[in-house]
Structure formats: structure tokens, C-alpha cells
Amino acid sequence: MLADEFGREVSGVRVSLTDRCNFDCVYCHNEGLGDTRGPMAAQDHEMSADDVVRFLEVAAEFDVDSVKFTGGEPMLRQDLEEIIRRTPDSMEASMTTNGTFLPGRAEALVDAGLSRVNVSQDALDPEQFAAVTQSGAYDRVLEGVEAALDAGLAPVKLNMVVFEKTAGYVPEMVDHVAENDGLRLQLIEYMPELVGKPEWAIDIDRVHDWLGERADRVEHREMHDRRRYWIRDEDAPEEADVDGTTGGMVEIVDPVENPTFCANCHRVRVTHDGYLKGCLNRNDDLRSMGEMSKAEIRETFRETVANRVPFYGEYMVRNGDGEWEVNDEYLDTPAVSDTDGSRPEPVYDGGVEDGYGSTD
Predict the structure, then answer these.
(1) Residue 246 belongs to what domain range?
(2) Is 250 contained in some domain?
(3) Where are the beta strands (DSSP E) in the chain?
(4) Is 65 within 8 Å of 94 (Cβ atoms)?
(5) What's the rounded Cα separation, in Å, for the pair 214 and 348?
(6) Residues that constitute the known binding site for GTP
(7) Residue 90 vs residue 72, higher pLDDT
(8) 341 within some domain
């Protein structure tokens, strides 16, 4: 297994299959690339199934044992089942989706080898949900969650981005997963350095504190140094055993201004158009795989891992005033642009320096 110079082994990859989406969520950062979503029809710049599988086969050679397929909305890819079926057997395949296409396809995805699924659900009310996602697909998402459960994908993890427009719905969502077997909840801290709108950010520590008071049990998860809160259904008998099989689990993903989170990152990412990147927050480290052979992908993968840098605490450091700024050591890192000019030369957007500092 490859490791960067900070000792962080890369055990997982996150592969975007498309930047197309049938939602228009107000917080979307499109895997750190910004809101670049285009027409809903399939686009020529998207990696083919062969491209994706070729990369995964190389990653498996380095003992990468998991892949999460993302988008955009990955289920807009009609060859998704094929890609999952061709994923190396040594890799666990999971997916993040908005859930609207799970009815009718969940069983086929499981048959193809999908092990887990995250479904984005930011509210339990159709109007509130529509305000955040800019879609009227609330009922369809609920049907998708049920389809995933029926297909054997339990536990289904619900993703909820926590910011000004959703924070008030957190208690209701926590109760929802505590009351429904097979559901878990992942609260994702809003990342203004990727999206903008710093006024939407909230203090995520307040959510941690509230969950700590509510939880029957709190456990530590090594990946990203996360905390998990086990919440018992308030209507369940007092003797109910909260052991991971009863009650609900809530986990917070809190990367903003968090060096500990970055120090425990073990993933690299692949964009929908075939660029490797070592960090979600950066686009100055993109490396195009293009029409590479496996040998060339191996070398590119090695270099991407070797050049990974923890975003907070290393790439971004605090100055004398306690504000985050880019570490001079990395200012001259050359960006990698595509030879055919299909993607502009990637640059760091300066969001954190502009003052709003630090989703899966």
C-alpha cells in the first residue's frame, strides 16, 4: 500500500463518474471542482467504463481495498452496473447517490457487487427538501431508500449537509434514523471554501455537543478521526441494547479548519473526466490519466500519492494573526493541464485566503 511523505497510506479511492445531476443542491461543490454540471445527456469527456476499470485495476495492485462511486449523480450512468461488476474483487464498491434512480435498479446494483450506499437527504419535509435541492423529488428519494433496504444494502447511510438552511432539521433527522432500523446518518460540515456563501456556515462543535448529550454511546472511528454517536429510539424500551444493531448511528464529517481530519485522510480522488487529485480542496494538483496505459497510470498514481499534502496544518497554515494562508512551500507546485486543452490549467481558487476558511 502506497503512503505519502506524511505516513498516510492510501487505502481507498473516490471516483466521480459524471458531473451531471438531476438535482441542483445549493451547497454542491461537485467533488471540489465547483458547479460545472452541464447538460443531462451523456458527455464525451466522461471516463468510459474501460477507463474507470483500468484505473481501478491499477489501484488494486497497490492494495487499495475500497472505491466509492460519486458524481454528480452516478446513476445517470447507464453502464454503472457494468462498472461495478468489473470492479476488482478485492475492492469493496460503494456509492453516493441522491436516490431517485434506486427504485428499479437497486437489486441489479447489488447483483453487480455494490456493498453499500449513501443517499443524500437533507430534510424530512418536501418543501424544505425542495428548497435545498431545487428538485421536487422528495417522495422518489424516500422510495429509493426503501428500495436500497429491500435489496439488502442495509445499513443505508443518509447524507445531510449541515449549514444555515438545514441545521434546524438535524434533531428530526436524528430521531428518524433512531426510529428506523437499517438507517444511519452522516452529518457533513458545510465547506464554504469550496462553495462560497460563508454566512451559511454554522459552528459544527455545537452539533457535536448536542449529540454527545443525547447519545447512549460515543465511539471513535480511526478514519478522519471521526466520532460516532449511537442514539436510542426514545420510544424503545429502556433495556434496549445500543450495540450497533439497535438504535441509530450518527456520524459527523467535520473537515473545516481541521488538521486532525486531514492528517487521517486515506483517499485519493478521480474526477469525472479522468484527473487524479490528492485532495478534495485542491485543484492545483490535478494529473490527467487521459489515454494512459496501465504502466503510465501506475506512475501517475505513485506520483499523486507521493505528492499528497494534508490540506489544513500543512498546505494551509495559520499566520501570526491566526488566519489560514497557503504555505509558501507549495505556492510554486506546478499544475498539470491537459495536453488537448479540454480543461483549463487548474489553479487554487484562494477561497480560504478570502476569509471564509474551512462533505462526503
Answers:
(1) 12-263
(2) yes
(3) 12-16, 66-70, 92-97, 114-120, 156-162, 183-189, 217-221, 226-231, 248-253, 267-270, 275-277, 287-288, 316-318, 324-326
(4) no
(5) 40
(6) 14, 68, 96, 157, 267-269
(7) 90
(8) no
Asked if residue 313 belongs to a domain, the reply is no
Instruction: Domain count for the chain, please give it.
Output: 1
Q: What is the pLDDT of residue 244?
A: 46
Q: Which is nearest to 166 in space by CA: 222, 125, 195?
A: 125
The DSSP code for 21 is -
Binding residues for [4Fe-4S] cluster: 21, 25, 28, 262, 265, 279
Task: Read off the pTM.
Answer: 0.87
Q: Which residues in 135-243 belong to E strands, given as ranges?
A: 156-162, 183-189, 217-221, 226-231
Annotated binding residues: 14, 21, 25, 27-28, 68, 72, 96, 120, 157, 262, 265, 267-269, 279
**Which CATH number goes with the domain that contains 245?**
3.20.20.70
Asked if residues 255 and 190 have their Cβ atoms less than 8 Å apart, the reply is: no
Q: What is the mean pLDDT of the chain?
A: 85
Retrieve residue 9's grid coordinates.
497510506
Give the pLDDT confidence of 94-150 residue by residue, as tens digits.
999 999 999 999 999 999 999 999 999 999 999 999 998 888 899 999 999 999 999
